[in-house]
Amino acid sequence: MAVDYTRPHWEKELPPFDLVLDPLGADSFARSYRMLRPGGRLVPFGAISEFDGGRRRAADPASDFRVLTGLSTAQQLVDSKTVIGLDLRVLWDDRDTLQPWLAPLLPMLRDGTIAPVVSEVLPFTEAAAAHDALVERRNIGKVVLVP
């Protein structure tokens, strides 16, 4: 389920989750961690909230990924929650492919268990407009470029 995080108090309407994929960064990571049920997993994979108009806002790029100040392994044990970072570039560099990580998803995509949320589909000639939509965070879901 994708949610519109720009609505006030959007998280209060939701039940606890087994999995939260968080591309926002900074303060969002702590909120996402709180939204997990015991046994849940938070996967931070970006820090788009640290960018404004295509420029990084944070003076210290490492600050984007200080996921949860004060979170310790002991706290994760007590909460029975997991935080695991994700950078597809690192996975690609490790094996020269993303196939081992994507293959388990294909049956679920085919049978409709999971479905991508697509905000808009644009031709390659509109790549600049697609980039602007992402930088300005006008999309809810993916912006897809096609030939």
Automatic annotation (TrEMBL):
The keyword Oxidoreductase applies. The keyword Metal-binding does not apply. Keywords: Oxidoreductase. SUPFAM superfamilies: NAD(P)-binding Rossmann-fold domains. Coiled coil: none annotated. InterPro entries: NAD(P)-bd_dom_sf (IPR036291), SV-ATPase_mito-regulator (IPR052100). Transmembrane segments: none annotated. This is Zinc-binding alcohol dehydrogenase family protein. It comes from Pseudonocardia zijingensis.
